[in-house]
Write a structure and sequence with these properties.
Organism: Oceanobacillus jeddahense
Largest sheet: 2 strands, antiparallel
Shape: globular
Radius of gyration: 16 Å
CATH class: Mainly Alpha
Strand order of the largest sheet: 1-2
InterPro entries: DhaK_L_YcgS (IPR012737), DhaL_dom (IPR004007), DhaL_dom_sf (IPR036117), Dihydroxyacetone_Kinase (IPR050861)
Low-confidence stretches: none
Bound molecules: adenosine-5'-diphosphate, magnesium ion
Number of domains: 1
CATH architecture: Alpha Horseshoe
Strand content: under 5%
Keywords: Kinase, Transferase
Mean pLDDT: 97
Helix content: 55-70%
CATH topology: Serine Threonine Protein Phosphatase 5, Tetratricopeptide repeat
Number of helices: 8
Distance between the termini: 15 Å
Protein name: Dihydroxyacetone kinase subunit DhaL
Number of strands: 2
Order of helices and strands: EHHHHEHHHH
Structural class: mainly alpha
CATH superfamily: DhaL domain
GO molecular function: kinase activity
């Protein structure tokens, strides 16, 4: 297995703003089709603030757990949309089992992601098939919980791939949670913006993992 240090996570969080800037228009487009067209902007606002505070967080945080909690709190506080509290809970709870650690094993990292995803479900109460980010995350959790592949890069690649397919699977669905719910059948044929940003965000972790 491999060990991921604080520097890895700080680098990932530093990559998030350029990533959302690059994808903002695409996410805006998806959200304008079945929502209120602000998903890209919401993420930009959140991660702009994360970027602003990242050096201070890195200096002051005692451990990886605190880094994640601080970032979650920024998203929770700064992003108005439903994605802010959901992604905020994700990062806050991802840090809950790694108190005191300045590095984590790959398996511990997988556990962090699973905890974060559970927090999203606890908060948003969405199930698979409701046309939300959960449709991307839960197929990813299945991969994280499997023993194979053993190689971390292979496993994380499979995780992101499963999430990407999960996002695609939202296209034919009617929404049972979130704004798109009001559209009924008219949401059919459109991909859920949160499911799309979810897998893309996890790909930022993958890219740094490969370095
Ligand atoms: P808002 O809908 O408030 O404008 P965003 O546009 O930033 O917020 O985020 C919309 C995304 O949030 C949706 O595409 C969906 O994936 C996700 N979402 C909304 N409600 C829920 C929920 N209850 N559980 C999980 N995800 C949700
Ligand atoms: Mg929106
Ligand atoms: Mg909104």
């Amino acid at each position: 297995t491999i060990v991921l240090d604080r520097e890895y996570f700080i680098n990932v969080f530093r990559d998030m703003l350029p990533f959302v800037d690059e994808q903002a228009e695409h996410l805006q487009q998806l959200d304008s089709e079945i929502g209120d067209g602000d998903h890209g902007i919401n993420l930009t606002i959140g991660f702009r603030e994360v970027t602003k505070q990242l050096d201070t967080i890195n200096e002051e945080a005692a451990d990886i757990s605190t880094v994640f909690k601080k970032i979650g709190m920024i998203l929770l506080g700064k992003v108005g949309g439903s994605s802010g509290p959901l992604y905020g809970s994700f990062f806050m709870k991802a840090g809950k089992d790694v108190t005191g650690k300045d590095e984590v094993t790959f398996d511990e990292f997988c556990g962090m992601l699973i905890n974060g995803i559970e927090a999203i479900q606890l908060r948003g109460k969405a199930e698979i098939g409701d046309k939300t980010m959960i449709d991307a995350f839960l197929p990813g959790v299945d991969v994280l919980k499997q023993d194979k592949p053993e190689d971390p890069i292979e496993k994380f690649t499979a995780f992101v791939e499963a999430m990407k397919e999960g996002a695609e699977s939202t296209i034919p669905l009617v929404a049972k949670k979130g704004r798109a719910m009001r559209l009924g059948e008219r949401a059919v044929g459109h991909k859920d913006p949160g499911a799309e940003s979810a897998w893309m965000m996890m790909e930022v972790f993958l890219k740094r993992l490969k370095e």
